[in-house]
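Because discrete structure vocabularies remain unfamiliar, we first show an illustrative case, written as a sequence plus integers encoding its fold.
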Amino acid sequence: MSQSNIQLRDYQQECLDALGQAARRGVKRMLVALPTGTGKTVVFSQLPQLIKNGRRMLVVAHREELLDQAAEKIAWANPTLMIGVEQAERHATPMDQVVVASIQTLAVSPKRLEALSPESFAILVIDEAHHATALSYLGLLHRLGLGPAVWSRAKSKTARQEAFASFRPEATAPALIGFTATPSRTDSIGLEAVFDEIAYSRTIEEMMRAGWLCPIIGKRVQSQASLAKVKISHGDFQEAQLSQEVNTPERNELAVKSYLTLAAGRQALCFCVDVKHTQDLCHAFQEAGVSADYVVGATAKDLRQDVIARYRQGSVSVLCNCMVLTEGFDAPETSCIIMARPTKSSLLYTQMLGRGTRIAQGKENLLVIDLVDAGAIGVSSVNTLFGLPPKLETDNDVISSLGDLGQIDQLELIPHEVLANARSLAEVQDLARDFNPLMAARIPEWLSCTLAWVRTSYGYALSVDRGHIGIVEDLLGHATIRVKTRSMASNTGVTWPNAQEAVNVAEKFVQKHFSDQMYFLDRKAPWRVSKDPVTEPQLNLLNKLRVRYPAGLTKGQAGDLISKALMDRGR
């Protein structure tokens, strides 16, 4: 259609090439996972140039900021195109070659949704595609022939899953390309139902190593607040209770002191729980003489723009917010993120972190201050996001710390729970030196089971019928069951929300089909829990498999080590 004004980075061109290859293979619904700050909008601004035969491109997003950014970037990349916006009082025309639309507008206006003719569009782009399982998006997908009719709230979760499992996109439907920095499931349907495959993916770590994102340094600051009694709702802390526990003068003062001690002079974004927490923490910064301001959902548009402009200019050093700047906000000068909002959601944490990962002139790194509270189990942090021991403290950036850990022998054998309390590299080295290999096969305490599962490189496995039942965890955070035994071999094709649910289903399957082997499979079978020493055939097999084992090994322990070794080898 037109020549682009944009010089693409190597991975951006790779992404476009991968999308083309997937389309030629017949893939209709593609997902692209690129970290915040690596130019997702730049990539899809190039897509209109691939469209022929007069068809158009539809870009859909859920926030006004994202709509305006997309329209501006596409217009800059394609100066000869006509681009229209479909949102509130703004209306696109049939002449517009690219339509940028608000999903909320389409969801509340059936006439505007029906006006979108599937035949007229060649490509549908969903920005921030981790929202694509929301009912509003499902209605759009059905309208364009890309999804079944499951947008009604009356439909059960099971009915939606079944509908997607049997659905095949219409031949005349546009190609669906979703872009996200966080390809994690946020709905029971799952992104794997909406998208056929991840056509291209890069991680924050990969982009940091390549020099496209700035180095990240994480600092843990321990608070006296406790999250032990905060209820969990939809996988994360219940907001009202969370705010009550963390919005205290003592904890807010700790956040301010941490900034002044660790990050004074840096441009900082501070993420809070709710409006009251945002206001109180902002006031605490101001009381300490820090130039701070805040924005919340109710902040008037003109005032929000003024506050953000002053932050970008540097007259505001600390900008507090709650769920406003997690998406659609670009401020490369941000060199500090203050995580005052605890979350169990790696998706939300990654979104908040991504606000500071962009490269800017004079910016050496991003400093992330994680406020850590008592009773905080499963809370996301810089360390957990990058696979570092959760309590590890170092002055190095994440990539350097990963490199240091990579030099420690046998580290990959140590389960995460063993490393949970290591605060220094020296402690990690001591754990690796003294590590008992039996720990590598041990399932975590939170996984409830009655059969003798072992931990594997891909998830969990159970030796059965000269084969195994495997629980495999994928990139989207789901668990699937894989059966590979003497009498059967299959993948169920069903994805479960987590490993625990998959294990529950797999155990019922085993009890039904292999009831005659339960004596050997029961994790509490007498031979497994007895102190009887390892047998000679077991020792021979352990040596053949080159498995390390401690002195005093029992038959049950040897069985676990053998099972793990065989499962890791795919046998």
